[in-house]
Amino acid sequence: MERGTALSAVPRFAIFVVVFEFQSLYLWAIKNPGIVTDSRSGEDFSGGCIYIICFYGWYMQANFSEQLRRAISHERLDAYRQRGTSSDDAELFTHYAWNMALSESLYTPLQCLEVCLRNSIHDAATAYFKTDTWFDVPGVLLASELDKVREAKGSLLKGKKTLDAGRIIPELTFGFWTSLLDVRYEKVLWPWLLKPVVPNMPRRIRIRKNLSKRFNHIRTLRNRIFHHEPIWHWGDLPNQHSDLLEAIRWVNPAMMTFVEPFDSFKSVYNNSISEYRKVVSALP
Fold first, then answer.
1. Integer distance in angstroms from the first to the last C-alpha of the chain?
2. Where do the structural domains in the chain lie, given as residue ranges?
3. pLDDT of 32-51, one tens digit each?
4. Of the chain's two ends, which shows fewer C-beta atoms within 10 Å, N or C?
């Protein structure tokens, strides 16, 4: 059946339904399977309603894509276009899905690194300064880090929680802990805290500068993931994953052993984008 012939045979009121009542059209077509005829021969096409249903499905697909674009935001999807992704909706959504999966797979080691690093620094500083509130000791922290401690305390007070070290430490951001690796703290912290904080870092490279470079590089990856930014296009992502695991091992091998069974990055990355293309193609 020619497309033009089939559409011409649809009653005018059906065109109105197409525009304003898609669900009603769907039901109408199902109940009237032979309503569409060939105007040249008068032959009854018992499956003529399929054309209308296909049109309905096409509309829903277009509507789904538009709604999804709005949900994600055109600006965010533009970041994928700018990195070489096709402007085709299916490809944009596929890359977005793969990026989500990659980010999810890296969340576990990032979380474990952040937790064990802050606790390692806190334990080492507590032992050296002989107080678990070492961050309040005059001359230890500089103005910018003192401000972050005050913010953490303010947040706890707002929640009517006590200001003990066990609550303050988790309130401090990963950025706070990596800032302590700056050259500004070279002579304040790191002549004494280096080995206790990263006891398994090879001695030949165990200097504050290398520690700062590694953990700030990881912080960049962490921030992009936690702010839902694209990372799929980073060619060195497998290397960054390896560096992340190595950093955990430097701080605490037991944490590395704990992370390994839950680390799914390699499987997600090696499966590549093709698996997500299949899933997205099956969406409405």
1. 26
2. 3-72, 101-267
3. 444 444 443 444 444 444 44
4. C
